[in-house]
Amino acid sequence: MTTGVRRRMGVEERRQQLIGVALDLFSARSPDEVSIDEIATAAGISRPLVYHYFPGKQSLYEAALRRAADDLAARFEEPCEGPLGARLLRVMRRYFDFVDEHGPGFSALMRGGPAVGSTTTNAMIDEVRQAGYEQILAHLDVDDPPVRLSLVVRSWVSLAESTALIWLDGRRIPRAELELQLVHDFAALCAVSAVYDDEMARIVAGMLADEPLEGPLGVLVSRLMAIAPAALSPMARVPRPRSG
Amino acid sequence: MTTGVRRRMGVEERRQQLIGVALDLFSARSPDEVSIDEIATAAGISRPLVYHYFPGKQSLYEAALRRAADDLAARFEEPCEGPLGARLLRVMRRYFDFVDEHGPGFSALMRGGPAVGSTTTNAMIDEVRQAGYEQILAHLDVDDPPVRLSLVVRSWVSLAESTALIWLDGRRIPRAELELQLVHDFAALCAVSAVYDDEMARIVAGMLADEPLEGPLGVLVSRLMAIAPAALSPMARVPRPRSG
């Protein structure tokens, strides 16, 4: 696509080519730094011809983001088969694949700013979050989620986002570790919610029912049980005051 | 301030009054919906006089946001005395006080959009996040945080944000419950991080060392221990496959 060889393309084919070229450029650097001239050069066409297909950089950016959003939403899809922990881990791997492929563009978009924050782009971000939310609920086999489950899933989707952004800033932790950690974080946030709510406790018990001991959630629980006594022993030393 | 009584004010006094009036309006409704006319009326001055002090709505919005950001950052400050869980809970209460007072403006700002997303406003948001991050680290008594601790604290700050935003959207869970839940979430995310990292395990053990059994973290641990057997028993039924 960047050979500069001109050949006749149909309107839709040319639009799709430009979107692909733009998405590559917007993914590799902050969209603020990508010019229409650069996109034209990469697509092997003239600057006026780019404007023939897209009225301005913002509309091309939004079309590229549309394609990226559809791509990301599709990566959340996972067959509802087998243990939940393993399913979530596969989704997290595909999520980090996406983040890895689109790093600088993903950071710029999620951190907001003049070139990337518009009503349209924010609506697309929310749409992807909603797709993630609905996919997780589908895996939990819950049609009408109680408000606390809804909160846990939505806030975990946001945790996955912030974890990915922090990872992109220096990549100082291996991504495979973070993929697993986010599955564990999900279980941990669910467990916290279950502490004060019987309905959540039942949902969490259901989540764990089919988990093998060697799966991601089984490993978390057994490791926590292994390190808990050492971590908790100081607590037991504190005398409990008695009331009355 | 909204009585309409005109009296002579110094330049700085008038600026501060306008910022206060604007902050009240921007807090109560989405900033998109607040006009300069409205701010002028609420301040009891003419529209041109508002422009005399602030060149446009964006500069007045940013000045109001500056005041709100300083206010929020100050609420993170908490003496480094007594058990950690109780300290975090007091910080979370003040955080939700702020969110409660500035609900619609907080939502509009954090969700981004044309009227609120600018380089300046995003920098202020990051500054408040950084203040929260540094405060938490100060309480953990860690000067040079390992990368995994840094990740846990930053991602928890973002979790507190998304939890507050979800709460504002309908207020369907009592805020006191969410304040406590966020303290528990912090402990849970730390525990997950400790599972794979010895340094984090030592930090978590240090965090728990001074926790009383009846404090927020002690209660979490004892409740988890109480519900764990029922939730985990199905897992134990799954036979573990043997390799070879």
UniProtKB/TrEMBL annotation, chains A, B:
Domain HTH tetR-type per the UniProt entry, residue ranges: 12-72
Pfam families (alphabetical): TetR_C_46 (PF21943), TetR_N (PF00440)
Residue spans crossing the bilayer: none
Domain of life: Bacteria
InterPro entries: DesT_TetR_C, DNA-bd_HTH_TetR-type_CS, Homeodomain-like_sf, HTH-type_TetR-like_transc_reg, HTH_TetR
Gene3D superfamilies: Tetracycline Repressor, domain 2 (1.10.357.10)
The protein, known as: TetR/AcrR family transcriptional regulator
Source species taxonomy: Bacteria, Bacillati, Actinomycetota, Actinomycetes, Kitasatosporales
Keywords attached to this entry: DNA-binding, Transcription, Transcription regulation
Species for this entry: Streptomyces yaizuensis
Chain residues forming the annotated DNA-binding region: 35-54
